[in-house]
## 1
Amino acid sequence: MADNRLIGKTGRVTGRVGPGRIGEVMIPVRGGTEAYHAYSADDEELLTGTRVLVVEVLPPRTVVVTPV
């Protein structure tokens, strides 16, 4: 899957994302769900279970997200 295809997808936080802290999100891709490392676009804390939108991709497996 090309990295730019992740932009605009929604997922859920599975490992707390915080200011300056990498977390984890699950994003549906290729008919399944995959884990990606994640940073907050707005440097806000995103707790486990928060729905998020991918706004940027940092290859190979990191995304920048914002709450939905």
## 2
Amino acid sequence: MQKEKKRICPECKGIIKSGRTEMVYELENMKITIKNVTANICGKCGQSFVSGRVAEEVNRMVNRVSEDINSFVKTQPEVSRGHRKVAIAV
């Protein structure tokens, strides 16, 4: 059995372990929170590190949700006022 190499946090030198985090996007008129995102997290400072592949997937999802919400709002004048919040768990 191969021993897993310890990953060290570049921020605080703590130990990084696999876990889940949330990513928050503040757009023009909405806030989108993506929860339960696979990440590596420092056990000492809590800093999250997301792989490039995961970040790309989340960005695509945020863009698609943003476009869908903006299209919907255009057809619903009573919804168009104010700041909108969206939370998505993956």
